[in-house]
């Protein structure tokens, strides 16, 4: 019996380790630019090698956000921030995958440095999204306009700039010991970009909306990104200026967040939102670490972090910010739902660690007490659902387990690779493969798709974009979560 139990535990650990490995591998499939000799997803080739030439800049590199060939710097920066936070919290558990995590971060930060290379300007998007979305082309073939959309003093974009500042600050901590020069470069640039974001306030919706909207319009305003960036800079530098900035501006986050559902905008409490658009609950969790250890700090951060916990846990009597499928997956309105499951799971795991260190519990009312172990247990349920413990017994990570999505909405995965079809394919030549009922020929290993419907059903179809499209910001927080359970 003991041997059998040990084998089951080992098998479980191996599964999480395998999932972590594949979760990181996915980012290599999303790379733009000149691919290195170490590239492991070999059906992908070089692409977008002239990006930035329209504005006299080198903007080669970075990531495609999802199944298209556009570089949206707002969600890309959030992806980089979350990869960095994953390493900072759980890097010690990553084992042999840690170098790949650092490589994934650096692929993002190298590009973000290029995007902020001209003082008082920040690149927000590369690639005309409307033209790109009209075509079904491999990134290696794309011949749609690679327009660079840039925010400036006159046309500000505080949300994209401040998120880049957060990403550069967080990543500077990641590389502090392994590459001090690079770490210092990232931090100095973060400080400069944050100052630009704060001094010249405005939304990139208004400045470069033709490149950002409707795909990544900012619906929550830019103050959350400014506070997020300041919080990360305080974490890195301990400079009082950034802490004072957070305290002086935190009241801006008291307002209601407007997010966009398929049927139009809907309202949610800011304390419960976290993702590429809204950083609200992430700020509270991040800041709670030092708020718990400093008795002189009188602030709303811990209270609001507790409110997030109570708004999610099913047994809590507090008003809920999520619903649950019959199989137990948490849901928020809108598409690409697994972004919420992975990002909120990450926050709850991080908070569980902070709570444990401070010997703290969360009291939700009606004698409901949430312990750190309960948060870990809840999060494990979300992870296991994503990896196959669900009514369909289906993994929502491509290449993980015996049953996973075969027809994901992703241009590079759907169209035969350059190795199989070296001839150039034009705008609509890929439509034939999109319409095919065959599985995708190129396996984008590690891609976590948008996920099932709220009744636990899943349509494995390229046409069902909210369910079948992977994104970098679904995977990024999942890296940290999987690293935790790998141990």
Task: Characterise the protein shown here.
Keywords: Carbohydrate metabolism, Cellulose degradation, Glycosidase, Hydrolase, Polysaccharide degradation. The active site is at residue 409. It catalyses: Endohydrolysis of (1->4)-beta-D-glucosidic linkages in cellulose, lichenin and cereal beta-D-glucans. InterPro entries: 6-hairpin_glycosidase_sf (IPR008928), 6hp_glycosidase-like_sf (IPR012341), Glyco_hydro_9 (IPR001701), Glyco_hydro_9_His_AS (IPR018221). One of its GO terms (molecular function) is cellulase activity. This protein is mainly alpha-helical. The chain has one domain (2-38, 45-255, 390-486): Glycosyltransferase (Alpha/alpha barrel). It contains 18 helices and nine strands. It has helices at 2-29, 73-90, 98-115, 129-134, 158-174, 180-199, 204-207, 209-212, 223-237, 240-249, 280-293, 301-312, 338-357, 372-387, 411-414, 431-435, 465-468, 472-486, and strands at 71-72, 121-126, 148-152, 257-261, 264-268, 323-324, 330-331, 362-365, 368-370. The strands form four sheets. It has a three-stranded antiparallel beta sheet. Strands 4-5 form a two-stranded antiparallel sheet. Strand 4 and strand 5 (264-268) form a beta hairpin. The two termini are 22 Å apart. Mean pLDDT is 93; it is low at 1-13 and 261-267.
